[in-house]
Amino acid sequence: MIDAEFWRYCGQRKLMFQSCAACLKARHPPTPFCARCQSTEVQWREAPSSARVFSYTTTHHATDESVGGATPYMVGVVEFEELGGVRLITNIIADSVDVRIGMSVRLVWDQVARDMFLPLFTPEGLARVRSRPDYSP
Amino acid sequence: MHPPGAEGGAQVASSSNRACIVGIGETEYVRWGRITDRSQFQVAGEAILSALRDAKLTPADVDGFSSYSDDANEAAQLQVALGVPEVRWMSMLWGGGGGGSCGAVSLAAAAVESGHANVIVVFRGLCQGQSGRFGRGKFPFFHRNFMAPFGMFAPVQMLALQMRRYMHLYGDAHEAMAEIALSTRANANRNPRAIMFDRPLTREDYFAARMISDPFRLFDCCLECDGGCALVVTTEERARDMDATPVSILAAAHGSGPNWGSGPLGSQNMPEDEYTTTNNTRVAADLYRRSGVGPADIDVAQVYDHFSGMVLMLWRTTRSAGEAKPAHSWLRGTYGGLVAACRSIRTAAIFRKPICTGLVTSQKASVSFAASPPRK
Hints:
A: 5-stranded antiparallel beta sheet; globular; B: alpha+beta; 10 helices; disordered N terminus
């Protein structure tokens, strides 16, 4: 799996998706080839700062020791229409009653290390942005 | 060019060389980590020997191995340990979990029908205390580095995302999920070999159970378990010379739609219009076409029940198209308590006697669900 470039950009607070340099199709996660034209040439396209909620779940049970003190927290899938429907797994920072599929959410960056930020999302217009669950991946 | 299984692809084999099952074997099934007195490898071998005894065969009769879910017990090592003189076929259905079990049967059936091998054991041996749990964060999912940073570690979370969207598209399904969980348990309560044989479950228990990852409560989730199982596959022609009662494999199929490798157990980038299908649509169509059997002909369906909601999705995609009834009107538990073991390739097989379909989808192991449509 090729993940270093994606996270290097996140460290700069840039949400970038690998795209084909030949036909511009965006893809996630990164792969060595464009599935449409098989080109190995890539360029990175920056995602817009808003996305739509494709689905979400609030996790109440810690499925790893590292999240033992963080439950409940919401895992979401957000979709970027401008990038051909590429989807990203993320955390949606909101109460579940405030979230519905199809709603617009905006990108917020959460600093998890000196040089690393995670791309999280919160409903547009939500006044209070809570912090992300406190755990170390 | 036709894709495998498409129009013009493989048809039902002629009756003499058609694949059949002549033996089945199991070890005990226990909660994950409870098999500590012997190795996972030994468990796999015991299941194979049990299946061969059922078929009244010996390892000397075997010339092939087939498995799934990246089973860690290598065929060449099983050959050494069991004393199989010559192997002509070794096949593995990559990745996935319990969803691969019928696919391993399809590989074995293809091998015997094409003459590559004569007697193939299809097996799975799994001791999660030794090889690691599926339901925990350390499992090496391919896209793990795009999931774990957001606290998504386990299949229950990954598949809850599809269930949430399913309910967004088709309406609330909590009652149907409860029905599936309760009938599954009732089936286990009828099977002395089931892990949950002596543990009844009430509707009150179900709804009072803690939420794991919504909408999945505790009893929507399958068990993680240890155990081994095996089948012996050969042709009907060879079975005539054996002292066993063959069960015909009318069709067996495996496959995947586009982008499902970045699907539920990965980055969730499978096609939008298939997001809540469990990737079973094509496999079901191939199976019905190749077997000549349709949903109305099936008496018993054994459905992989990793999470209750996925059973519901599978019903939607495997019944005849265009039927307007809600999926859960079809549910009626009939049988259960076996272990499938294992994840994401979709597989299916139709057996005769009575006509039974094993429709297996995503994730892990445990007490298998079985249901049949009401007779019209």
